[in-house]
């Protein structure tokens, strides 16, 4: 498995800072590749292939430290959040490269909004592309659960959006954004990709932005639905759960079990609900026929369902411990809102995130749950 994380660069006020070229040029060498993203206010870390969760977590922490140290040398900070926290005075500068300019020209305002977002992408190795398609078909109903677990973008442009993940509806503006359709085979997958390229909905294969896709560079299936979590521990949790889900999916495919059906229109609604509620709300339970249940209960059931796979890979203890910590501390969106509630200040959210990005989930300076979020931001029934 491997994880890619995207981050914002911000100045002392919390506003986006177009310093990616300088930060990357000054970053210390390390195991993870550090890269530019769509705008000059974003950077990305792409970790190496890992088999153990401790190895993965150590790599995530090291990459974040390298970025933070390089950013500090340029007078800016690294922030793990799904959307920009502070209001921006104008369009963001693009990173160098003709490809980014062509994307901006073709997609206009969609690129301006949907391009300035930060996600977390989990890669899991599969034997071949047909196996990747089989895994994709079986992971589709789990996308809302993974989104709810990772939701970390409630505050955007200085205000609470009412969504735990505002990144998800922003990102869905891309014509290739959202869940993939059910696929019959790798050949069917390629037919769909070719049609998207022919229509112009994707500039190239890298612009097939489905929430699950096959990698063109590695023998992996890539899950892309998640906000970048504020802490490396949460990214590692996503990775071990996704790996277990892929393992279970491949076993189900080998046994000839039919994937659970979820109509594409219904699945988009499921993702909307997960984006709105986040970890503290409810989402459809893939193990319970799609019935709405509290996300924490869905995750507890998922761990029990995946226990053989998590135990076999040595991930069970970590998954149980991390989920217990999140039940106490709240999800990323809840922690952002707790920071915002102190003084109704978006700058306080940026300050919290800048610390959590490097210090992690066990940072004792993290805000404790306080006043409930505003009514428009509460989970249904909350």
Rg over C-alpha atoms, rounded to the nearest angstrom = 19 Å
By secondary-structure content and strand pairing, the structural class works out as: alpha+beta
Query: Judging from the principal axes of the Cα atoms, what is the shape?
Result: globular
Number of strands: 11
Percent in helix: 40-55%
The description of the largest β-sheet is: 7 strands, antiparallel
Strand content: 5-15%
Task: Tally the helices.
Answer: 14
Distance between the termini: 37 Å
Low-pLDDT segments, ≥5 res:
none
Overall mean pLDDT stands at 94
Order of helices and strands: EHEEHEHEHHEEHHEEHHEEHHHHH
3D architecture notes:
- The chain is an alpha+beta fold.
- It has helices spanning 20-26, 53-73, 98-114, 129-139, 143-150, 167-171, 186-199, 232-254, 264-277, 295-305, 307-312, 316-329, 332-341, 346-359, and strands at 2-10, 33-36, 42-46, 77-79, 119-125, 155-156, 159-160, 212-214, 220-227, 282-284, 292-294.
- The strands form 3 sheets. Strands 1, 2, 3, 4, 5, 8 and 9 form a 7-stranded antiparallel beta sheet that branches. Strands 6-7 form a two-stranded antiparallel sheet. Strands 10-11 form a two-stranded antiparallel ribbon.
- Helix 8 (232-254) packs across helix 12.
- It is globular.
């Amino acid at each position: 498995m491997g994880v890619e994380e995207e981050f914002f660069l911000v100045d002392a006020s919390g506003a986006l800072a177009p310093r990616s070229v300088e930060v990357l040029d000054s970053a210390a060498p390390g195991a993870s590749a550090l890269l530019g993203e769509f705008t000059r206010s974003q950077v990305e870390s792409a970790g190496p292939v890992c088999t153990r969760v401790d190895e993965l977590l150590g790599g995530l922490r090291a990459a974040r430290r390298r970025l933070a140290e390089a950013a500090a040398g340029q007078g800016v900070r690294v922030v793990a959040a799904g959307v920009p926290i502070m209001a921006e005075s104008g369009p963001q500068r693009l990173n160098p490269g003709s490809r980014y300019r062509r994307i901006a020209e073709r997609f206009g305002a969609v690129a301006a909004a949907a391009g300035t977002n930060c996600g977390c992408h989990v890669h899991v190795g599969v034997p071949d592309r047909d196996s990747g398609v089989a895994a994709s078909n079986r992971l589709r109903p789990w996308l809302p659960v993974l989104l709810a677990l990772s939701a970390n973008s409630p505050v955007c442009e200085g205000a609470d959006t009412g969504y735990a993940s505002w990144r998800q509806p922003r990102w869905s503006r891309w014509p290739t954004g959202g869940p993939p359709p059910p696929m019959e085979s790798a050949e069917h997958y390629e037919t769909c990709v070719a049609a998207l390229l022919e229509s112009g909905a994707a500039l190239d294969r890298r612009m097939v932005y489905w929430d699950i896709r096959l990698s063109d560079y590695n023998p992996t299936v890539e899950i892309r639905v998640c906000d970048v979590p504020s802490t490396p521990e949460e990214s590692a949790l996503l990775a071990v759960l996704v790996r277990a889900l892929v393992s279970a999916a491949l076993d189900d495919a080998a046994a000839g079990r039919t994937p659970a059906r979820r109509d594409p229109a219904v699945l988009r609604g499921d993702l909307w609900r997960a984006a709105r509620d986040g970890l503290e709300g409810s989402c459809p339970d893939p193990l319970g026929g799609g019935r709405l249940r509290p996300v924490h209960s869905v995750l507890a059931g998922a761990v029990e369902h995946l226990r053989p796979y998590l135990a076999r890979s040595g991930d069970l203890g970590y998954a149980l411990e991390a989920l217990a910590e999140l039940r106490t501390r709240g999800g990323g969106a809840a922690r952002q809102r707790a920071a915002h509630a102190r003084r109704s200040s978006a700058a306080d959210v940026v300050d919290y995130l800048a610390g959590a990005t490097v210090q992690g989930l066990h940072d004792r300076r993290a805000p404790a749950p306080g006043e409930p979020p505003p009514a428009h931001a509460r989970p249904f029934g909350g």
